[in-house]
């Protein structure tokens, strides 16, 4: 139908436009969730995408530039941006088709193949149209997107060589790429009361497909399994636009601009906590990159992937506030240790130690 082809072309163009960077993607997820709150995955993706932006700007923030050379930092950003862009490029057309279907009163799931969507997904969209249950659909989207990343990033020789096999990335705890945090808004009257507490989870191994899927489903359980958490995180999303800076949620700990000599933070030279740590906005840290080209390959091969679709159990431990702050102190300690080792090496070379 001519109308369908026009819609397909419009969604493709919209997806490309919104896939410019982490900020535009994150906002797009939120707008879809606001319009269609039954799309639980859109809100989960919005909050995880915020974390993706924070991870990107960490590479130009207070600590990591002191530990990583520019080449490795650039390679890590490229991989994070690719992961972010791949997920958006695959998932956003699915969400938009649903939105258009709701507006027109017509199930448009038959158009999913036009966007190269895996054959794993159409049955879940059909089921969602039939019963309106968001849980299986959300789990299926988690499974689908993590398998896409496995095929196109984790198993890709380029990313293995430039990032995944590097000692720095293997120390995910050092890079803070293993923490996903959901800031909990404290109410309009307490909008200035900081710090916000953080709910969240810790991923042990990025390279393990099963663990990433179970981690994503656990985050879903955390976000939607506790009404108070959902209300507080939703309020944060409403009140705080995403910029990529960790100052979005902890302005008492992070600042978007430098304040030290020559425009640089004194950072590790100061006592911990006396001044905010540098966390730039995404636009300050990185320029837009062209979205990754995706080969038309379907990851789905066998019914084993359906084993993840089961009742969601919310995690028992949800507060990550202290662990998140401890992670920042670990980065600071790593900087101090590296400086101490470098100073010792210089002293031995010059005999002035």
Fold and architecture overview:
The strands form 2 sheets. Strands 1-2 form a two-stranded antiparallel sheet. The protein has helices at 2-18, 22-35, 40-58, 70-104, 122-131, 134-154, 157-164, 167-170, 172-175, 209-225, 227-239, 282-285, 321-350, and strands spanning 179-184, 197-202, 254-255, 277-278. The chain has 353 residues and is mainly α. The chain has one domain. It contains 13 helices and 4 strands.
How are the elements arranged and paired?
Blueprint: H1 2-18, H2 22-35, H3 40-58, H4 70-104, H5 122-131, H6 134-154, H7 157-164, H8 167-170, H9 172-175, E1 179-184, E2 197-202, H10 209-225, H11 227-239, E3 254-255, E4 277-278, H12 282-285, H13 321-350
Parallel strand pairs: 3-4
Antiparallel strand pairs: 1-2
Helix pairs in contact: 1-4, 2-3, 2-4, 3-4, 4-6, 5-6, 6-10, 10-11
Number of strands: 4
Query: Rg to the nearest angstrom?
Result: 21 Å
C-alpha geometry: globular
Task: Tell me which oligomeric state these chains represent.
Answer: single chain
Note the gap between the termini. 79 Å
Strand order of the largest sheet: 1-2
What is the overall pLDDT average?
89
The domain count comes to 1
Sheet-strand content, in percent, reads under 5%
Order of helices and strands: HHHHHHHHHEEHHEEHH
What is the percent of helical residues?
55-70%
Structural class estimated from helices and strands: mainly alpha
Low-pLDDT regions? 260-273, 343-353
Quick one: biggest sheet?
2 strands, antiparallel
Number of separate helices: 13
């Amino acid at each position: 139908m001519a109308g369908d082809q026009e819609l397909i072309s419009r969604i493709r163009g919209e997806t490309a436009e919104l896939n410019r960077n982490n900020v535009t993607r994150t906002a797009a997820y939120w707008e879809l969730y606001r319009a269609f709150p039954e799309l639980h995955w859109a809100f989960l993706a919005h909050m995880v995408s915020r974390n993706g932006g924070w991870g990107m700007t960490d590479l130009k923030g207070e600590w990591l530039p002191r530990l990583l050379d520019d080449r490795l930092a650039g390679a890590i950003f490229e991989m994070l941006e690719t992961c972010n862009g791949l997920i958006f490029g695959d998932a956003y057309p699915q969400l938009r088709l649903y939105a258009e279907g709701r507006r027109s009163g017509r199930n448009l799931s038959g158009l999913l193949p036009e966007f190269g969507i895996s054959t794993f997904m159409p049955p879940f969209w059909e089921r969602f149209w039939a019963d309106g249950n968001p849980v299986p659909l959300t789990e299926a989207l988690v499974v689908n997107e993590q398998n896409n990343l496995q095929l196109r990033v984790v198993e890709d020789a380029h990313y293995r060589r430039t990032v995944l096999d590097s000692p720095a990335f293997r120390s995910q705890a050092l890079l803070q790429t293993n923490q996903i945090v959901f800031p909990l808004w404290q109410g309009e009257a307490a909008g200035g009361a900081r710090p916000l507490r953080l709910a969240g989870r810790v991923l042990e191994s990025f390279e393990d497909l099963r663990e990433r899927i179970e981690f994503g489903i656990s985050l879903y359980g955390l976000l939607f399994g506790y009404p108070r958490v959902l209300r507080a995180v939703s309020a944060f999303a409403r009140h705080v636009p995403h910029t990529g800076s960790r100052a979005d949620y902890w302005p008492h700990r992070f600042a978007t601009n430098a304040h030290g000599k020559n425009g640089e933070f004194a950072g590790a030279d100061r006592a911990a906590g006396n001044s905010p740590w540098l966390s730039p906005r995404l636009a300050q840290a990185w320029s837009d990159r062209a979205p990754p080209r995706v080969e038309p390959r379907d990851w789905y091969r066998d019914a084993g992937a359906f084993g993840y679709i089961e009742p969601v159990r919310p995690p028992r431990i949800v507060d990550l506030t202290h662990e998140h702050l401890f992670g920042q102190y670990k980065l600071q300690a790593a900087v101090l240790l590296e400086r101490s080792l470098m100073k010792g090496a210089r002293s031995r070379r010059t005999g002035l130690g």
